[in-house]
Amino acid sequence: MTAFVRGCDGSVLLNSSTGQAEKDSPPNLSLRGYQIIDRVKAALEKECPGVVSCADALAIVARDVTVATMGPFWEVETGRRDGRVSTFSEPLTNLPPFFANISQLISMFRSKGLSVKDLVVLSGGHTIGTSHCSSFTSRLYNSTGKDGTDPTLDSEYIEKLKSKCKVGDQTTLVEMDPGSVRTFDNSYYTLVAKRRGLFQSDAALLDNSETKSLC
């Protein structure tokens, strides 16, 4: 989703001495693996200086990580140019937030030239990785259902999440696709259908007939 900001230009890799780059923005604080890209880029520069951009390196590593976690292989077209601008504010207005409803999601994807199917497919990226509790605890303690819970979230899943995430927890990490966090598969969609999508934006896929039929 980092390409939502300025396209596939690797701008999320840029550092800021004042903490005002994309990677410093709240939506990106849970990103990991920058050091892997650094090592790959260093090896590339040793073999062919000034040829492969950081943006291409990032795209290729993303493909290789997908393959390494039992996902599909695809040819990565190269030739991307590295961006030189990276700002704190742009992820806040360009990246789909975890609390987005289905109308907001469809609108944001369409503004980038992406379809409803693209929305559902790219949401499947939540099959890999973790999230801080703060991105979904409002669904556990500050929603419209019983005891402040989100009525669109499976009750048993709520109890499991509450056992890990207490009110105000800003540090605990939770798997986005429990039991399959290191495997690139379609179990994310199975969980969404069972009302066990971690984020409000996951649950929102069931609020539209087209997105629901694609899950």
UniProtKB/TrEMBL annotation:
Which residues are involved in binding substrate?
Answer: 96
- Residues binding heme b are 126
**Positions annotated to bind Ca(2+) 1:** 5, 7, 9, 11, 22
Q: Which cysteines are joined by disulfide bonds?
A: 133-165
Q: What is its EC number?
A: 1.11.1.7
Chemical reaction(s) catalysed: 2 a phenolic donor + H2O2 = 2 a phenolic radical donor + 2 H2O
- CC cofactor note: Binds 1 heme b (iron(II)-protoporphyrin IX) group per subunit.
Gene3D superfamilies according to UniProt? 1.10.520.10, Peroxidase, domain 2
Q: Does the keyword Calcium apply?
A: yes
Residues recorded as binding Ca(2+) 2, renumbered to this chain, are 127, 177, 185
Residues in Plant heme peroxidase family profile domain copies: 1-215
Q: Which GO terms describe its molecular function?
A: heme binding; lactoperoxidase activity; metal ion binding
**Which InterPro entries does its entry note?**
Haem_peroxidase, Haem_peroxidase_sf, Peroxidase_pln, Peroxidases_heam-ligand_BS, Secretory_peroxidase
Function text: Removal of H(2)O(2), oxidation of toxic reductants, biosynthesis and degradation of lignin, suberization, auxin catabolism, response to environmental stresses such as wounding, pathogen attack and oxidative stress. These functions might be dependent on each isozyme/isoform in each plant tissue.
Q: Which family does it belong to?
A: Belongs to the peroxidase family. Ascorbate peroxidase subfamily.
Q: What is this protein called?
A: peroxidase
Q: Which organism is it from?
A: Salix koriyanagi
